[in-house]
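Weekly sync, protein design subgroup
Attendees: M.S., D.O., the rotation student, P.L. (late)

Item 1: inverse folding check
M.S. brought a backbone from last month's batch and wanted to see whether the design step gives back something sensible before we order anything. D.O. pointed out we never logged the input encoding, so this time it goes straight into the notes. Structure tokens as presented (329 positions):
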């Protein structure tokens, strides 16, 4: 049976927020994590969940995360709990399974249905007020938050260094120009219009609109449990997030918020894996099916076969500093 979606606030606007970061590569992950140190209201948990057990990611976490934690402590802000989840690559991209691995680790660590899960990709950098705004929306009852991203150019991305993000509070690349603000406002209005028609004239709405952006969205954990999380039968590129939006719409009874223009996040440039035509994406044939229920068969419960994911500790700051000193000798 679907899990009931429950809500509570622990203290003023203190709904717990967990940040889920799936990745298959260390590329841009240092900047993604460094941006956590900019959060005016940091998340309660950060779960880095990997479609690989490559040691490069573990070494990156051991180098960067203690610096993130140190900066937050120096500012008198919350130091999130870090969960690092990994298992060997399964010879095909399994983003949804990796996301669910992170959700399972959160549940094992005490996450509750009332908590909010903010999902971003490992090549995203959140704006400083992002988690604070996600927390505020969740505290006001939002079960699903439709957010978005600003795509940075290759030149801008090459100019960004994680060490600079950790050392400074303001960054020019996070200041939206007029064109970016207009694009965000236009998409925000389009999503609000789609949500209005879904509520007023649902028969005229596409089943997955307003849609969720895979690189940045938020869903209450209870809602994710009710639909059994991300559908692990989506492998390869594309349509997995459209599927989640469609199943959440089909579940019904959820409060949706459009926050495209309210919560910027920044997508760091890299070569795309997207096919030239969306219909060529591996997930398209499964998304075309109209018989898929709100609660997916293969998700948080009943996952696809895989080696047992490991939830591993990350070296603490003293270990990293000692290792750095040893390398300098």
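Designed sequence read out in the meeting:
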């Amino acid at each position: 049976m679907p899990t009931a979606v429950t809500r509570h606030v622990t203290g003023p606007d203190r709904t717990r927020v967990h940040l889920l970061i799936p990745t298959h590569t260390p590329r841009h992950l240092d900047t993604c994590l460094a941006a956590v140190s900019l959060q005016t209201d940091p998340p309660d948990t950060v779960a880095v969940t990997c479609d690989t057990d490559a040691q490069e990611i573990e070494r990156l976490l051991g180098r960067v995360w203690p610096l993130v934690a140190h900066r937050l402590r120096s500012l008198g802000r919350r130091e999130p709990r870090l969960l690092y989840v990994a298992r060997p690559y399964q010879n095909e991209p399994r983003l949804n399974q990796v996301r669910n691995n992170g959700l399972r680790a959160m549940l094992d660590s005490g996450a509750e249905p009332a908590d909010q899960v903010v999902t971003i990709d490992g090549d995203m950098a959140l704006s400083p007020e992002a988690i604070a705004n996600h927390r505020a929306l969740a505290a006001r009852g939002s079960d699903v938050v439709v957010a978005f991203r600003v795509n940075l150019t290759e030149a801008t991305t090459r100019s960004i260094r994680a060490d600079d993000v950790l050392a400074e509070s303001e960054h020019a690349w996070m200041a939206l120009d007029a064109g970016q603000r207009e694009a965000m406002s236009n998409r925000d209005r389009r999503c609000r219009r789609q949500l209005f028609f879904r509520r007023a004239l649902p028969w005229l709405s596409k089943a997955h609109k307003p849609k969720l952006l895979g690189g940045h969205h938020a869903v209450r954990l209870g809602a994710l449990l009710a639909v059994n999380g991300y559908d692990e039968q989506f492998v390869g590129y594309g349509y997995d997030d459209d599927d989640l939006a469609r199943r959440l719409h089909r579940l019904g009874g959820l409060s949706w918020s459009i926050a495209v223009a309210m919560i910027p996040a920044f997508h760091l440039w890299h070569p795309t894996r997207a096919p030239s035509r969306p219909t060529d994406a591996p997930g398209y044939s499964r998304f075309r099916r109209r018989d898929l229920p709100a609660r997916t068969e293969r998700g948080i419960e009943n996952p696809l076969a895989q080696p047992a994911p490991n939830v591993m500790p990350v070296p603490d700051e003293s270990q990293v500093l000692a290792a750095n000193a040893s390398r300098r000798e």
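Discussion: The two ends are 60 Å apart (CA to CA). Residues 178-200 form the longest helix (23 residues).
Action: P.L. to compare against the previous round before Friday.
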